[in-house]
Write a structure and sequence with these properties.
- The protein is mainly α.
- The chain has 2 domains: 118 residues, no CATH class; 37 residues, no CATH class.
- Helix content is 76%, strand content 0%.
- The chain has 8 helices and no strands.
- The radius of gyration is 25 Å and the shape is elongated.
- The two termini are 49 Å apart.
- About 9% of the residues have low confidence.
Length: 162
């Protein structure tokens, strides 16, 4: 749950950063009211994107989750800005798409990189105890064999390897 909340917060921070940079670049005072007035379509787009793709299932994945959340965010934002006559020039759409894409997918890529150890396959319990290779093969064979299968096949493999 914390990862999915973290992904939502990460995306909201990205669009907030984008809005703040845009306001500074255009000489608009960086007040709470201005940030809210410019940023609410972006925030609503992020929320809709997370809900539409059910991003909580795999919050840090780039594909398809990250790409679809980004695309839905940009599409929703532009639709709302058009609906409220806030301006959607082609250059604004291109800059918004490119910058939010790099930022939204970029932080996800960094999160995937830094959490890669958590997704790495765990060693078997016998490997941690320093068991022999034959014991490890036996353990894997037992785990993969159907219930009630003859265990003599595993024993014959152990005898053959000795």
């Amino acid at each position: 749950m914390f990862r999915s909340l973290g992904a939502l917060v990460g995306d909201l921070l990205v669009v907030l950063l984008f809005v703040a940079i845009g306001m500074i670049q255009h000489g608009t005072p960086l007040t709470l009211q201005n940030v809210f007035l410019v940023g609410w379509p972006f925030a609503l787009g992020v929320l809709l994107g997370h809900l539409a793709i059910r991003a909580w299932r795999a919050p840090f994945r780039l594909w398809p989750h990250g790409v679809f959340v980004w695309a839905i965010t940009v599409a929703t934002t532009m639709a709302l800005r058009t609906l409220f006559s806030a301006g959607t020039e082609v250059s604004f759409i291109i800059v918004t798409g490119a910058v939010t894409g790099v930022l939204m997918l970029g932080w996800r890529a960094a999160a995937l990189y830094f959490t890669r150890a958590e997704r790495a396959p765990r060693p078997a319990a016998s490997k941690a105890r320093g068991a022999s290779k034959v014991d490890q093969i036996e353990e894997v064979a037992e785990a993969e064999s159907p219930v009630g299968a003859d265990s003599d096949a595993v024993t014959s493999r152990r005898d053959a390897s000795s």
